[in-house]
Amino acid sequence: MLDKSLSTPSDVVIYNLEDNVPPSPYDRDTARQRLSTFLSVRRHRTPQSKLPHHDRIAVHLNDINTPFFKHDISEVLKSPFVRTLVLPKVHSVRDLHHVSRAIRTSRAGSSALFPIRIAASIESARSTWNLGEIASWTSEYGPDTGGKLGALLLAAEDYCADTSVSQIMIAAKAFRLDAIDMVYECEDGRRLGFNGKQAIHPTQVDIIHFTFVPTEEEILRAAKILHHMEVAHSSQKGAFGLEVEGGGKEMIDAPMLKQAENTIRVAKAAGLEIPLIS
């Protein structure tokens, strides 16, 4: 399964040391060691066994209240390929401070420091109650030494799914974090404002990519907005009317311009064609 991850087209590959491993100490220790060997520099010198770019690699650790966490973080951070840690059961900023201290300790003496991105998994009523504090957290040691919060990840518990989906998305947007939805219902997740989704099998990646990139119609509309707004600004105007199907015009102003810019940014990142408007 580890070797199969080398060919997945997903944006990020998450190597899970928690849910996918039996709970016994032997199994957790074995899984950690296998992953450490897999992520070692020596193993990946040939093109055939080359790891994905470090921006695409994340490791899902055991939570901080288990006896496995300390060993997980110290072992996986030995690899220069690991730049993102997924932390389950983050209930408060106290948990993030604990993780930050562990990152600092694990990297003590390292001469090549770079920010470790933290994806905090929101899984409880307590975590949703503390959502604003969690989303605005920063490490007291700085991002290069103690890590940096980069995403809020929605776990699949019924309570979170039923009562706090929009809160998680809003908090993530407010603090410029990625909002990562749970495994199911791509279209609902995108409508709610999430900009990514977890997958548990490579066969799910294509449908996720298809759902979360803009449609041709959305790209065309965004391109028209950007073009006509540029023309409007050159004429000292702050808004304009965009012709719509069936006649009439839709008033376009600054907030809609921002949405259009985001649409084009995502489309470009996905390698989609942007039509030229004249």
UniProtKB/TrEMBL annotation:
The UniProt record lists the keyword Lyase: yes
GO biological process, one term: oxaloacetate metabolic process
UniProt xrefs under Gene3D superfamilies: Phosphoenolpyruvate-binding domains
An example Gene Ontology molecular-function term: magnesium ion binding
Chain sites annotated for binding Mg(2+): 123
Organism: Rhizopogon vinicolor AM-OR11-026
InterPro entries: Aldolase/citrate-lyase_domain (IPR005000), Citrate_lyase_beta/mcl1/mcl2 (IPR011206), Pyrv/PenolPyrv_kinase-like_dom (IPR015813), Pyrv_kinase-like_dom_sf (IPR040442)
Cofactor: Mg(2+)
Keywords of this entry: Lyase, Magnesium, Metal-binding
Organism superkingdom: Eukaryota
UniProt-recorded name of the protein: Citrate lyase beta subunit
HpcH/HpaI aldolase/citrate lyase domain ranges (all copies): 1-182
